[in-house]
Amino acid sequence: EVLTLLVLMYPLLRGLALHLHSAVTGSYIPGTHSIAFVNCLNEQIARDIARAIMDKKLAAYVNILPKSSALYFWKGELEESTEILLLVKTRTSKIGELSNYVRSIHPFEIPEIISVPIDQGNPQYLKWIEENVPRD
């Protein structure tokens, strides 16, 4: 029973240990922040979604990348289109809320909303993200 409890509590204990280590040493905890990718049909939709994300304080920074070509399967057919890509910098803890919100306002039936954790980076920039995206 004790072993089962320890195994179940390991992620929580590890997380607490990492946060304590970070607080004491001032080091960054890998994965605390993430970059989310959101595809958009055109620049106006991209700007509208980016502004909505910022208005809700779900990100500290959103890049709107210029038009790119895309190839993908949709309903069994190979499609080709152009799209605008948003790079959304935020707390990892906000990814679920961000994803839900973007799905609620995005015109695509199944919008691309994927994220990758930030492993390391400029400590001042990562702290700035934290200061500009409220905690849960």
Automatic annotation (TrEMBL):
Signal sequence residues: 1-17
InterPro entries referenced in this protein's UniProt entry, alphabetically: Ion_tolerance_CutA (IPR004323), N-reg_PII-like_a/b (IPR011322), N-reg_PII/ATP_PRibTrfase_C (IPR015867)
Alphabetized GO MF terms: copper ion binding
SUPFAM superfamilies given in the database record: GlnB-like
Coiled coil, from the record: none
Keyword Repeat among record annotations: no
A Pfam entry, by short name: CutA1
Record's keyword terms, sorted: Signal
GO biological processes: response to metal ion
Record has Cell wall biogenesis/degradation as a keyword: no
Family: Belongs to the CutA family.
Subunit-structure text: Homotrimer.
Protein name as it appears in the record: CUTA protein
